[in-house]
Amino acid sequence: MKKEKGQVMTETVGSPAGAAGEPEADAREGMRVERVYTTEGVHPYDDVKWERRDVVMTNWRDGSVNFEQRGVEFPDSWSLNAVNIVTSKYFRGAVGTEERESSLRQLIDRVVKTYVASGVENGYFATDTDAEIFEHELTYMLLHQVFSFNSPVWFNVGTSSRQQVSACFILSVDDTMESILDWYKEEGLIFKGGSGAGLNLSRIRSSKELLSSGGTASGPVSFMRGADASAGTIKSGGATRRAAKMVVLDVDHPDVEEFIDTKAREEHKIRALRDSGFDMDLGGADANSVQYQNANNSVRVSDEFMRSVESDNDFGLRSRTDGDVIETVKGRNLFRKLAKAAWECADPGIQYDDTINDWHTSPETGRITASNPCSEYMHLDNSSCNLASLNLMKFLRDDLTFDAELFEKAVEFVITAMDISICFADFPTESIGVTTRKFRQLGIGYANLGALLMATGHAYDSDGGRALAASITSLMTGTAYKRSAELAGVVGPYEGYARNAEGHQRVMRKHAAANDLVRTYHHNDKAVHKLATSVWQQGLEIGNRNGWRNAQASVLAPTGTIGLMMDCDTTGVEPDLALVKFKKLVGGGSMQIVNQTVPRALQSLGYQEEQIEAIVEYIAEHGHVVDAPGLRQEHYEVFDCAMGERSIAPMGHVRMMAAVQSFISGAISKTVNMPEAATVEEVEELYFEGWKLGLKALAIYRDNCKVGQPLSAGKGDKAESEKAVEKQIEYRPVRKRLPKKRPSQTVSFTVGGAEGYLHAGSYPDDGLGEIFVKLGKQGSTLAGVMDAFSMSISVGLQYGIPLEFYVAKFQNLRFEPAGMTDDPDIRMASSVLDYLFRRLALDYLSYEKRAQLGIFTVDEREAQVNNTEPAQGTDNVDLDTMRSTVDYSRAEKSESKDEVRAGSSTELLELQLGKAADAPLCMTCGTKMRPSGSCYLCEGCGSTSGCS
């Protein structure tokens, strides 16, 4: 029977039968693959429009060049940000050499052809034709940003480097000095490669126990100090982000209270040193004296402990050597200490041990004791997981329904490719390689959930939103395991399956049972859930017959860098950060834009085109939807974001995590943000509800709880605030008048046929102090308005308002007259004011300030294009500095009101809220990062603060 385009058939074909009409010599066991996205006879590259661009990435703070490569080739649909990040991070070869990659085609071919060749070699495909179709489908999906592999794949696959494909690692350490030193070494090797690792220290005996020699043990916290120093050294030795690591300790370890307090005590030290005048900001000169800052800490709690908290009973701390109780504490008191430490400094997080191991597919091999640094990968010690994430917005149809069938087929392709990668992958240690090849852990996930929910008219914190998220996640994991079972019939189940068959089957039944409990509310989630139910039933039948190829299939990762590569509005399972975002422009500069998801959401909610325009315009001005014209109040919640005027309540984040957790093999990378005014009791409530709702891990962050954050606002406790009020001094600007005799210049100009004169007076020492504009006939309304305007600008300049502030506000302002000018440096102007302030910038601002505004003389532009030194008369700037400021491969113009003061969406949000956000500055480009799962992501260059 002939299948239509958009369908795929993957079935086991046994020898000697081959594809119909093909020679038996070509037949072998493997999968049959049919096209979904592609058309026979047309290569995916031939279906897109390609263009050449120049990538010049600069440090936002000082203008220095971080990276430059010109003439790179990408589809015209890819954004500037995606092009910059892929070019700078993923293209291989030394810049400026012939070996350097310069096209997205080269990058995709390098990776995809390696995967397909390994698939052919290992018997995954029935015929060469099936392998070719698989190659074209993967190529199309990567080319059109349908999904992305994790960063190590792009770094390493198809190069002369080790073929490391995994980003997530779990190590182990035993109670011997040799094992502890091996831990330091293995962790260092993983950090050197740009990945992260986690481990559980609970096997190390406590400081309350004796050594065989009769002395007292040091305890795990003391060894954490050495590992932390090692991680910090590797970071400072040249890495572009801090070492990413997770340290876990069981709640019944006798040193658990010391472990809980480690980072909280350091935070007290930071405050004391700061108040004494030391530089304790992030990256400050004195910040290196602080310990334990290179790791995320988590306490692994048991059901027994949580029940002792619930019933206010005693809880025993047990010896590591014989398991006897050596100390008894009140469970509730220990839980309060944990919550208070998290309230003070965001650490430790919490991991729910019994829940994690209840969903463990390989329990006969060993327990799950730890996680990777971002807490999404949880499996056996000395193992790894490679990740890939799908862009959910690519499955949203024009009628705003989710294409579940297409999503299912996409998951099948991606999970197959991920499994193939383990066949050729290298690993940082032999033990990790052995475990990973035996259990073949995969981590398929998604990005853009927040954008998808908003676009379909669902509030993130709503029953309907959670139902759609749960249905999509269930379909994803169900399809992944179904394909894993099909692969087991082709190339065999994972090596550890036979020993763990009963446990694996039990977990599959738990997933399917959880799917049956999902309550649907809307035709969108009903259709997705119906297909998910069918997929789980088929998967169970195939798996019971074949076994499964993979011990783990899915996680929800931060999707930081690859989320930017796919031009996603939201990362992982996160909601949108804010309704208004910061966008870099190809021609240089930036602009403020309303999220493109907002109009689609308004359309989904039934608003007319005129209403949508008015609401979007209101959001652009105010940054939120409160009191937006024509927007009904019951729809406000659809536009709630992680930050801003209407931010999602902390418990709303927890409820969303709980909605999808039952459909994830691993866990979820996410931090629940809490307002500064949140209490310790509220932290306790979140941690307790996380346990009751079946989460595997949970971390919180209370606004302004850390001192070491740049530009943090509202620091200090109530007493400090009251003290500050008592000492408050009011400062007022003082007008600096021009002397009677001052230098000046007059410029005649023509803009769009309108003639005028600009008179500018300066202070004798330095700086513009007044302007007068003659435009229109004397006595006309226009002439009067320009006189009044000139007077107000002049007074502002004399009161100290910087000229660059006015330039930023008035350049690119659009109104008539506009058009050609007679000025060789400014050939086109969008209005008279646009011309006047760009002319003033050229005459009175330094090159560095003008470069940030994208304003250059004709000589400077020629120097940039011709790669020569600027003509005489230009500010003393070398060519490299000039190149660092502009990417002029396309001419897009900015209408941003805050383009000089904001370098990222986080900074733009700070301007709207009037308060600083607790996020670090990127160590590569100086941009303020944004939250991404339990890590941070730089929108400027794609760097992350954790594993990617």
Automatic annotation (TrEMBL):
Keywords of the record: Cobalamin, Cobalt, Disulfide bond, DNA synthesis, Nucleotide-binding, Oxidoreductase
Keyword Oxidoreductase among record annotations: yes
Documented EC number(s): 1.17.4.1
Protein name: Vitamin B12-dependent ribonucleotide reductase
Cofactor: adenosylcob(III)alamin
Coiled coil regions in record: none
Stretches assigned to the Ribonucleotide reductase large subunit C-terminal domain: 166-701
Organism: Saccharopolyspora dendranthemae
Domain TSCPD as annotated: residue spans: 739-843
